[in-house]
């Protein structure tokens, strides 16, 4: 088999351009992107939580509520005011830790000006890879030059990928238009998307296993995670209601790890944290809208998480963003008909209690309340058995 003498030449095709890094202009004047990335999740949380609270207060879209209106004050073991206080503490912790970490890191601004260099490096990698394609084809007995010539008239770009230098009289000088175009797409779209999915995978994995551990380990559940499960009927602004240790190790640490591993910039962190905040709000909002994008993507939406908040669903649906780990490890609740029957029974018993007593079940958290929640007692089923 004869190969062109230039087929194994891997010297850089063009000199690397000179790129000078400069600080990126802040998205909002007089406020660094680093600080904005820290406080933006709180702003998004307040807006999204306030929106759903408005729907609750005005009894709007009641048709799409998971639970009957006002059931939360009949079943929950914490008042809305107590919940709001804890949520405020959560965001104060998040902002304080973020600002401290930013200060310790020197409040370094995001640098820009190297896009041309990054495109060049990507094009260089693509060019090297392209030169391997015809060599690989020749090794397996496919005449790359013949295939390239046959396709050149119909698809010149693909012909260039398959045959490369075989279609020219000598080595190609500089990058081809295809290589440059692909490099620009990789740098502007491909790499950011990869970073986003890496960050998502880190957070989703971390939260699934730590969340599940908090349910498996009775001590962790009783002392830490049971506080979040005082909300049998969740609502939007109670999404991050929980113990301060859960705030620190389950939520904040997961996003710190995701940002470091995926190497997110300040503006990428803004987008990712805003997405995560809206997803968390959506999971706890108590509404199932037919246009919910999260539920349509992978069925991990408000119903998926609300089931986990019921006493009979505590051992299922641990995931927050995807259903990957739940499906893989068999912790997804699959009995839809059974869930519907349980929900209906709970609503009937709640309505019966409301008729017999004007007192709400929401009480100030104490040790007895913690035991009830921690043991996952089926309060309403227990009452039903006594009738």
TrEMBL record:
Keywords, ordered alphabetically: Membrane, Transmembrane, Transmembrane helix
Main location: membrane
Organism: Stereocaulon virgatum
PANTHER family: STEROL DESATURASE
Name of the featured protein: Fatty acid hydroxylase domain-containing protein
Subcellular location: Membrane
Residue span(s) of domain Fatty acid hydroxylase: 196-331
Signal peptide: none
The UniProt record lists the keyword Membrane: yes
InterPro entries to which the protein is assigned, alphabetical: Fatty_acid_hydroxylase (IPR006694), Sterol_Desaturase_Related (IPR050307)
Transmembrane domains' residue ranges: 35-55, 185-209
Record has Thylakoid as a keyword: no
The organism's place on the tree of life at top rank: Eukaryota
